[in-house]
Design a protein that fits this description.
5 helices; six-stranded mixed beta barrel; alpha+beta; elongated
Amino acid sequence: MAVAPRRSPSHVGLALGLGAAGAVVTAGVGLMLVSLVIPQEPPAASCGATGGAPGSIVPLAGAGGVRVGATEYGGPGDPGSGSVGASGVNLLAHPDSYAELGGTTFATASAMGGLPYMTPLRISWGRRSAIAYKRDFGLGGSPVGGLPRVIDLWWQFARALGIPYQDGRWSGAVGVSVPPAAGAGSLLGGSPSAGPGDGAAGSRGATAAGGGGGGGACVPGGAPGVQVTAGPHAQLLSDGQAAAPADAPVAVRGIIAAGDQIVGKPYVYGGGHGLPLDQIAPAYDCSSSVEHLLYGGGLLPVGYGAASGALESFGRPGPGRWVTIYASPDHVFMYVAGLRWDTHDAAGPGDGSTGIGWHPLVRSSAGFVARHPAGL
């Protein structure tokens, strides 16, 4: 008997549009996914069973992936789920979507390690598989067939895999694995001569790190292309923008690209708040500028807009390998691949512009809480 999933409020969005006959109006988007489905051996042939507490599933580790418990949500029989994901997108327009389970916010939905939004995963059921992207989260629930329940499949995606629609009540086992690292070189300027990334689906996640963080598997939220440098650290350019290390995860490139979008913007206390993070504001303050960059790395939903103190609990404690956020109730700044993003030249002479942007010197972190995005 199918077990109904427990959902977080993130699944409650706009009501589904229904046609006269009660069918969901998708403007044909439900058919778009069919071309992505390819024959494949059943998950049992290539995915090893796994178990454990939330956070122990690491779908990005190993070529074979893992076998996990899954549920579906949405559709005409499940109107309570709505059709807007926690990332702010219309799921009817993005049928290739899934929700990571395990928490009440994007940061605590950690059944698979706390994946950033737009992390791609290959989902397999029977002899079919397709790529889906994280655009939502949910609470989770009891195991499915002895496997940890870690993923909620948007009903259109589940249907394209051949999973029977059961009014949002289906549950079963699926295979979950990281897509191959193909075509990532063109994303966000993967070579020194490259222009803006083409954002081609399937190229995301090429630099995904193990450990369940998935920081390298995210996709930038609308950021433009970014220049790259062969060195191990980001490089401050003469125009105030930054070049990303060539081997940086895609999330880090997205953060740097988003920073380059707003370098030199004036500082205004409260500036930038109240606008979606995919829009460029005329002015920023410390928290809104940092949040714009984190959105560019796929690490925040488009509607996020908290004060600096809220970032004291962002991600995971301590410094990160690529990104470290220093937050307090009064201010927030961060380091990205060795460059500091700040709203003023706090490190003194030689620290660059007095405005919002990249700064080459290290400033005191006294009184700040260090946090980092999972996997970065």
